[in-house]
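== Folding the chain ==

***
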Amino acid sequence: MRIKIKHIMHIVAFAIIFFMIFNYATFVIRDKSGAQSCVPFYDMDEDADVLFLGTSVTFNGISPLDLWNEYGMVSFNLANEGHDLANSYWALKEALNYQQPKVVVIDVSYLTVESSEPRVHVLLDNMPFGLTKLQAICDLTPKGQWRDYVFPLMFYHGNWENVTTNNFQEVTSINYGATVAQYSKKDDVIFDTSVFAQGLTVLPEDDVCQIPERALTYIDKITALCKENNIQLLFVNYPSYATGETNHGNGEELQRMWNAFSLVADENDVDYLNCLHLIEDIGFDYQKDLRDWRHLSVYGNQKMTSYIGAYIMEHYDVSDRRGEESLAHWNDDYVRWEQYRQRVLEGEN
């Protein structure tokens, strides 16, 4: 009997060691390009009152530390590059395993976009193993690829030849998921925003078109999930120079979809801000506040963060928490964030 127990213990010990090595090897070689915007979320000790989710538009557009400095709001930005509404739904479902926010803000910038395989990996590879991750894998990926998401090492095994010392570093960030950039580049050429100086012809709010069915499906899922958890939901379309052909479709057609989303929001009894119709209220300058047709510059980030923050404080039960001693480190983090922002403006990003 003792021999059997000893044998079982050896098997268990081997399995644990193997699992630890396997996990560490996966960590070393996997793509960590989006990790800084989500991994620190799991280390967050304080209760977040607001969560922001969506695409790179939110990732570059909303700063939790500016919200803290201006309004005393405790929040986290869980948005990431190329995250469609399906990714946002599963990111939210996962987040609710760890936080119970009062408000969730989701951007609807890319209603026509379906996340690519690398973007789905960014979401799922940074998600701890558990039921939600397995459900997300089954929903977001073809059955033939499930193995690559359950065991990401299978997907990234070819990366060994590109491993550097940076691959071994822990993922850390004091930005609470956000980032900023002043310029967009393509082939080392800075995007010229002077073409935006004339402003955008914004289509009237009643000029609408059909929203893709897949987007509507996940809008319904997000809405139901928030109602089930007594969370106030705010959808946002951030300012953009949406005209002509863009990398996400015709700009005027996108405008019509964003207009049509007002009808969807009304049907679901949720709030929606289409910022293309709020340009003057925001004080938005297309040339200065955008760094390409869709992404906000450092200045645009500050304006939108301030505007969205004011809206949340006015319309939802979110308190100013700057007086809480346990949150004093947010003040220190804000100082570092402001220093980082200045380096970006000085071209040292």
